[in-house]
Amino acid sequence: MKAELKRAADLVAFQRREALARKRLSGDPRNPFRPRYGAELTFTAAAQEAETLGYILKLLEKEAARECARRVIPTLDAILDFVIGFGLLALAMLGVAAACVAAGAPDGITRTAALLGVGFITALSLHRLGRK
Prior knowledge:
The model has no long low-confidence stretch (mean pLDDT 79). The protein is rod-shaped. The protein is 86% helix and 0% strand. It is an all-alpha fold and 132 residues long. It is built from three helices and no strands.
C-alpha cells in the first residue's frame, strides 16, 4: 500500500507541476496572476487543475501520514504501558520498603502485603497490555 501511495503522490505532483507550467505560459509576463490576452480559457483551466491536483496531493500525503501513524502508535503505547507498569512496580517496592523501615522489622504481614501489592500492579499492567 505504501508503494502505491508514493506512486500516486508522485504522479499527482508531476501533473500539478505540468498544470502550473501551463498556467505560467498562458499568464501575463508582467503580472502572472492575470491571463495573457487570448489565453483566458487555458489560464483558468490550468489554474483550476493545479488547485484540484494540489488538494488531491494533500489528501494523499495525509493518508500516507495516517498509515505511518497506524504502525507507530501501538508500539509507542506498548512502550508507555511498560514504563508506567515498571514505575508503579518500583513505587510499590519503595512503599513496602518504607513500611518495613517504619515497622522496624520485616515480618510475615509486611511480606504478604508487598507480594499482594506488587502482584496486583503487575496483573493490571499485563491485563492492559493484553487488551491491545
